[in-house]
TrEMBL record:
Domain Fanconi anaemia group A protein C-terminal: 1164-1375
GO biological process, one term: interstrand cross-link repair
A cellular component annotation (GO) from this entry: Fanconi anaemia nuclear complex
Protein name: Fanconi anemia group A protein
Provenance organism: Tinamus guttatus (White-throated tinamou)
Superkingdom field: Eukaryota
InterPro entries the record matches: FANCA, FANCA_arcN, FANCA_helical, Fanconi_A_C, Fanconi_A_N
Length: 1399
């Protein structure tokens, strides 16, 4: 048997000399025959002998390992031997001369257990399955230990940096699949696996050991050495989709989650109450949160909560794990907040109060608190949750006194373990308690205040806007008061009203208000010449008697005294300034001498003291400045006090001189921390920071191109060190000017630089490139020894992004260049050399390997959208590139860089449609005033000064040209895909609609203005694109059809709402559509038929297009006729000819005695006639034509008259809300009354036009569908403008007229209550701006007067139709409701009397 292996080896050798097919069968047959001879000689079956021989050879292979330690993998030599052995065994199995069962038993009798790779190879080659092999071992614990040991070694080998990762991964995958398939079997799988009784037990035990190993690391906090458990768990989560039954996986995940939550349940509930602040998502062990997140992948948020709830109800739990799981769930699952708040926590509270169950109560509170600790962006603050749950009588505690007592008993039991913020919430927002049980509440408040006293926290000193959901401990009262003042001023600035919280504090929290809030508000200062927001707020409080007169007088005197003191000190300030200069000079002497670096910190401390003397500030004032949350800087006009500006200039000059002097002797990386300490000292003087940042704004933003090389180098290095100490600098409130969409932005110091570095003109391009090159070069040299991650943290992303924009733009060599490490090292000394051109310096930096490594980081990658927004901001006539070079750059950037680039790096994945989406979005964002760094949530556009407004309102022609090229290319591609469903969806309108829907709602007025501006810009883009791009084509059978569905939908839902006429689009988009329709019809086999089909569809699906054509037909007709003749040289399409005929018929009908033709939909004819009437100056002729039209008895003229009335009413509204359209209000009213008179004479039921939308007859629904939403909302105004034309018989003839009139009156009132300006004719001597409010009230008064006068004339049956409106009427005009009820009862009594007379 010992020679068996050698025989196997020999059997493979002939294959090397000749074909394998010739040698394989004879050699294998030879081995089988030898085994049979030996078996006959020994008197044993051949299969048994073969099995024992195979085990012996496997044992020999294992013992051949040179390593003394047990490793789960074979070496190369062992693997080759095993491979040859397995080939032979497979042949023996084929010839039925191999016993599997004996082989499995003999495997476990070896001196040492088999290696995992051997077992895996047996399984993979289908010789012996893993399950069969495990089942054959009689000792289950030994097998479990063997597997765990092998897996541990396998993971360790995979972790080795030079090890083979692929093979261990494959082994792990197969083993893990087997563990899951057998350890968590489903009912459907039990039948086919009954032969394996031990395997499920073994697999389950191994999985449990793996999990237990991982849990131990959670508890210890040690993350090293857990490769075994972590890798195995990761493998479980990677392979499940294709290999494991989903139910098995879910069962395992549930088991895992249960094991985690119940592992080592040593902590008590009291510990959880006290320590849960330390168990938030960010503070929890990353291994544990990672495991939770991977487990949640298999569950929905609802299922995760259900599992968590089940564990809490049935097990003793580890509260740290449970609450960290809650945090992870609420952070990672967006829908978890609503499930927590609306179901789980609420159900726990209901259960607690139904059964008086303390356990459910504490669970609810712990979960709500834990979720709230993750911040208001994730879950509502605890204070809001507590108020919502117990702040009203409808809470679960309001059902009985027993429930109320239960709540306070629970809260009282919490008190010894509570922290101050939660106690403050319970005191400031106490549960609702009936007056008769007030004593229960007072007992708790007394107990809570005692606990607060033990914690040395006074409830009286609690701030107005204190963040009770914060995980930080309470700040000192003076600090909180300063924050309250800033918050109150901010609210006052937005609302121009004294905040309610301040009013309440002045009454109910008098000690805090007088002792802390007012002193913080009335800190003496030099008052500005023009009162600022703070001064206006103080004056408002004084007028409201919220500031005592003597305190206000003292404040004014103190402010005056401070001004005089500053004036006096300015004349005697030479000495402190000179002392500061002397100390700064001494610092320079130390910095240039490397042997004296150790003296620098002491010298900087002296400078700090001298600086305090110059600034004339105390420690208290500097600390007060520390508590201010933001630094205000006006980007356009930074306002600096002269004394502060001189000090800042002195410090900045000293820094630049020190840098240049030190760089003369040493590169930045050998200059020590001198300059860093200097900047840190400046940041410590918080009252200096506003002047410092304002001066940097002046120097970089306003004066940058005029700075010298030395200044640029110094300021660039200074910016890097400021970013190094960014944690010491508060946020910057950047004032961008009132003309912007977002006037003010809150920025970090690293975001602030993006605003100051602009690229719009030739000068600003050159400066930005020089500054960013100097800053990044300094950082790479200064911090060359830092690890990559720390270096990235120091570098402001905007500097790198500006370089990514400017370097390829100005350097042809940088476009697509690879790094050239070792060839282009840029020495810091050469950067300050005047002979070193800035373009060459930037190119040297660009080629640096380390800089290229930075560009691989996502935070530093300039996305396509950001590039576009920067490019859109360039003034074409002041660009540093001439037009041909700019064109070449755009082509490279779009087609060669961003279009093929992956989306992960800011590109478009080669998707042309995606590129168009980004370009359109960038154009719209730029025009709306957003920046390259995000819409709505990041800085606004970095304004470039001169001509920005004109630039913003135009579309960059170069970018628009590229967009046109792409759209045309897409259209050509879609022709080939016209049968696909995706090809029938127009991406342009999808982009537009997504932007309109994805908007975060702000104020109603702001949202309305934004939406109007957005639609105007979208229309401008549509008009700028090829006309045929509006229309798609698709195949229907063998015909090519024109598809305008998306355009029609966009017009009906959006565009019609920005047309000032209310029922007709502007000329540009109307003409563009018709030109596009004619161009697109070239793709049809029958062009005229395609045009006719679209225009016929317009009649029902988008009538506003035809109304627009009627409005602009005098200008549109020659354009379309000429285009049709050029394209086809044939008679006009039938529908176009019909439009032409209607236009001519309307003109001839008004100018002669001709009969108006009766054909087609009456509203289209009415539109042509209406616009023809507007062009007529002779009103008498128009009146005669109207009478002629009204004499016809057919239905067509009557419907045409009603349509004319609708158009005239729309013009009546347009005359007031869009006066620029040139529609005269009085003429429109006169025309409307004439049409109304004609309708009345014919007895036409015209009030149907004013019925609610759902009740409007189908024949008039098309008219309303074409009107803008605002015009429809203002229909009540138009209706009550017609009251002079209402005849007496109207109420009798139209039973529903009273209902219509009342409904429109209520709509009129509702519009006024919602702040809508109700248009009316201008009064003599008053412009519309002065009389808007008076006009609105007058419109309402006239409408009310008309209703009250008409009510007595209404027939009794009319009152029955107004019953559904009485509830609305009671809320808005109860007096009118009383009149309606009185008259309706009288009418009912009269009807009853008439009925009695009959008898």
């Amino acid at each position: 048997m010992s020679s068996f292996c050698f025989q196997v080896e020999d059997s493979g050798k002939p294959a090397e000399d000749s074909g394998i097919e010739h040698q394989k069968i004879p050699s294998e047959s030879f081995i089988a025959s030898v085994l049979q001879e030996q078996a006959a000689r020994l008197g044993v079956p051949t299969a048994i002998l073969a099995a024992k021989s195979a085990v012996a050879n496997i044992e020999q292979i294992c013992e051949a390992s040179p390593s003394s330690s047990q490793t789960p993998l074979l070496n190369t030599e062992q693997r080759e031997k095993l491979s040859r052995l397995l080939l032979t065994v497979k042949d023996l199995l084929t010839n039925n001369v191999f016993c599997r069962s004996l082989f499995c038993q003999e495997m476990w009798k070896m001196k040492k257990p088999p290696l995992l790779e051997i077992v895996w190879q047996l399984h993979r080659d289908s010789i012996v399955g893993l399950e069969e092999l495990l089942e054959s071992n009689p000792e289950v614990p030994a097998v479990v230990e063997w597997l765990c040991s092998g897996l541990r070694g396998l993971c360790g080998q995979a972790e080795e940096p030079l090890g083979d990762v692929e093979l261990p991964g494959r082994l792990l995958t197969d083993f893990v699949i087997m563990f899951l398939q057998n350890g968590f079997q489903q009912t459907s799988e039990l039948g086919r696996k009954l032969e394996f009784k031990k395997v499920p037990q073994i697999c389950h035990a191994v999985l449990q050991r793996m999990l237990t190993c991982k849990y131990s690391f959670f508890s210890s906090g040690v993350q090293l050495g857990c490769a075994y458990a972590s890798r195995c768990i990761a493998q479980l989560l990677l392979v499940y989709r294709n290999a494991v039954h989903p139910d098995s996986l879910q069962q395992f995940f549930r088991h895992t989650l249960t094991e985690v939550l119940t592992y080592s349940p040593l902590l008590k509930v009291s510990d959880a109450i006290h320590m849960q602040r330390e168990w938030t998502f960010t503070r929890t062990c990353s291994l544990l949160t990672t495991l939770y997140r991977k487990l949640f992948v298999a569950f929905s948020a609802k299922e995760s909560i259900r599992q968590l709830q089940q564990v809490l109800e049935t097990h003793e739990v580890n509260w740290q794990h449970v609450l960290s799981c809650v945090s992870t769930l609420v952070v990672c699952q967006a829908e978890a907040e609503q499930l927590f708040k609306g179901k789980w926590v609420l159900c726990l509270l209901i259960k607690a109060f139904e059964n008086y169950d303390m356990e459910s109560m504490i669970t609810a509170f712990l979960i709500a608190r834990q979720a709230a600790l993750e911040g208001p962006a994730v879950f509502m603050p605890y204070s809001e949750w507590f108020k919502a749950s117990f702040g009203n009588a409808g809470g679960p505690h309001g059902s009985s006194k027993k429930a109320l007592v239960f709540l306070f008993e629970f809260l009282s039991e919490l008190v010894p373990f509570e922290t101050a913020p939660y106690l403050k919430v319970h005191i400031m927002y106490p549960p609702f308690v009936p007056t008769k049980h007030r004593s229960v509440l007072m007992e708790y408040i007394t107990l809570a205040k005692t606990r607060l006293a033990d914690l040395k926290v006074a409830i009286e000193d609690m701030g107005l806007y204190e963040d009770l959901s914060s995980t930080n401990e309470s700040v000192q009262p003076q600090g909180q008061a300063l924050r309250d003042v800033e918050k109150a001023i901010q609210i006052f600035e937005n609302t121009r009203k004294i905040p309610t919280s301040v009013i309440e504090a002045s009454i109910f929290r008098r000690p805090y208000y007088t002792s802390w809030f007012l002193p913080a508000l009335l800190r003496p200062r030099v008052l500005p010449k023009t009162p600022d927001v703070r001064m206006v707020f103080i004056d408002s409080l004084k007028r409201a008697d919220k500031i005592p007169a003597n305190l206000y007088s003292t404040y004014i005197q103190a402010c005056g005294a401070m001004k005089e003191k500053l004036l006096q000190e300015s004349s005697h300030s030479e000495e402190p300034v000179e002392q500061l200069k002397a100390e700064l000079a001494e610092l320079r002497a130390l910095i240039v001498d490397q042997t004296k670096y150790e003296d620098v910190p002491a010298q900087i401390a002296v400078i700090s003291d001298r600086l305090s003397n110059v600034l004339s500030c105390s420690n208290d004032e500097n600390e007060a400045a520390t508590l201010n949350s933001q630094i205000h800087v006006s980007i356009f006009a930074p306002d600096l006090e002269p004394c502060h500006q001189s000090v800042v200039d002195l410090l900045l000059t000293s820094f630049c001189q020190n840098l240049i002097a030190a760089s003369y002797f040493n590169p930045p990386d050998r200059q020590g921390s001198c300059l860093s300490l200097f900047v840190k000292m400046m940041c410590g003087h918080r009252n200096l920071l506003p002047a410092l940042l304002g001066r940097l704004c002046q120097l970089i933003y306003h004066q940058g191109p005029s700075l010298s090389d030395a200044h640029i180098l110094g300021l660039a290095a200074f910016v890097i060190h400021l970013s190094e100490h960014r944690s010491l600098i508060p946020e910057v409130e950047a004032d961008l000017g009132v003309a912007q969409a977002v006037p003010e932005k809150i920025l970090s110091i690293t975001e602030y630089w993006n605003f100051l570095l602009v690229c719009r003109t030739e000068e600003s391009f050159a400066f930005c490139l020089r500054f960013c090159t100097a800053a990044v070069s300094y950082l790479l040299c200064k911090f060359s020894s830092l690890p990559h991650d720390e270096l990235c943290a120091l570098l402001p992303p905007s500097l790198v992004k500006k370089l990514q924009y400017t370097v390829p733009r100005l350097n042809l060599e940088a476009r697509g260049i690879a790094c050239e490490e070792g060839k282009t090292e840029l020495a810091w000394s050469s950067l300050s050399c005047p002979s070193m051109h800035y373009k060459r310096a930037s190119l040297c930096l660009w080629k640096q390997a380390r800089f290229q490594e930075l560009l691989k980081e996502k935070a530093f990658q300039l996305s396509f959208r950001e590039w576009l927004l920067l490019e859109l901001g360039v003034h074409p006539d002041k660009d540093i590139l001439p037009a041909p070079e700019r064109h070449d750059f755009h082509y490279w950037a779009i087609y060669q860089w961003y279009l093929p680039a992956p989306s992960a790096s800011g590109g478009c994945d080669g998707d042309l449609e995606k590129a168009c989406d980004v370009i359109i979005g960038a154009i719209l964002d730029f025009s709306q005033g957003y920046s390259a760094w995000g819409v709505g949530s990041c800085p606004a556009v970095d304004l470039g000064g001169i001509g920005y407004d004109q630039l913003k309102m135009s579309i960059n022609p170069d970018i628009l040209c590229k967009l046109q090229e792409m759209v045309l290319e897409l259209r050509c591609r879609r022709k080939g895909l016209s049968g696909c469903l995706d090809a029938r969806r127009h991406f342009l309108f999808r982009v537009f609609q997504e932007r309109l829907k994805g908007r975060e709602h702000g104020s109603a007025l702001g949202e309305q203005l934004w939406r109007q501006q957005e639609l105007l810009l979208q229309r401008r883009i549509l008009v700028g694109l090829p006309a045929s791009a509006l229309i798609l084509t698709h195949r229907k059978g063998k015909k090519t059809m024109l598809d305008c569905e998306d355009f029609f939908h966009f017009v009906n839902s959006e565009l019609k709402n920005i047309c000032s006429r209310g029922y007709a689009l502007s000329y540009d988009i109307t003409a563009h559509f018709f030109r596009g329709l004619l161009n697109a019809s070239l793709d049809c086999e029958e062009s005229a038929e395609g045009v006719n089909d679209v225009l016929t569809t317009c009649q029902t699906k988008c009538p506003i297009v035809l109304f627009s054509a009627a409005l602009w037909w005098p200008r549109l007709e020659p354009v379309l006729c000429s285009q049709w003749q050029r394209l086809f040289g044939a008679p006009l399409a039938a529908e176009l000819a019909t439009l032409r005929d209607r236009g001519r018929s309307a003109a001839s009908f008004l100018s002669s005695e001709a009969v108006f033709p009766i054909s087609g939909p009456p509203w289209i004819s009415a539109a042509f006639l209406h616009f023809a009437v507007q062009q007529q100056s002779a009103r008498g002729r128009v009146r005669d034509a109207l009478k002629r039209l009204g004499t016809e008895a057919e239905l067509f003229p009557l419907q045409l008259l009603v349509s004319l009335l609708f158009f005239s009413l729309m013009d009546l509204i347009s005359a007031k809300i869009a006066s620029k359209e040139g529609v005269d209000f009085h003429k429109s009213l006169e025309w409307s009354l004439e049409i109304l008179q004609c309708l009345e004479e014919r007895g036409v039921s015209w009030p149907l036009l004013f019925h609610p939308a759902e009740k409007v007859p189908r024949k008039y629904h098309i008219l309303r569908s074409a009107a803008s939403d605002r015009h429809l909302r203002l229909l009540p105004v138009a209706f009550y403008s017609l009251t002079p034309g209402f005849c007496q018989e109207l109420f009798t003839r139209e039973p529903a007229f009273l209902c219509v009139a009342l409904d429109l009156y209520l709509q009129l009132l509702q519009l006024f209550l919602e702040g809508e300006d109700l248009p009316q004719a201008d009064k003599a001597g008053q412009g519309p701006g002065l009389a808007e409010h008076v006009d609105s009230l007058e419109v309402i008064a006239k409408a009310r007067q008309f209703l009250l006068a008409a009510l007595p004339r209404c027939p009794p049956r009319s009152f029955g139709t107004v019953q559904p409106l009485l509830d609305r009427c009671e809320k808005i005009d109860p007096e009118l409701k009383g009149a309606l009820l009185h008259l309706s009862r009288a009418a009912a009594a009269l009807e009853l009397d008439e009925e009695l007379v009959l008898f």
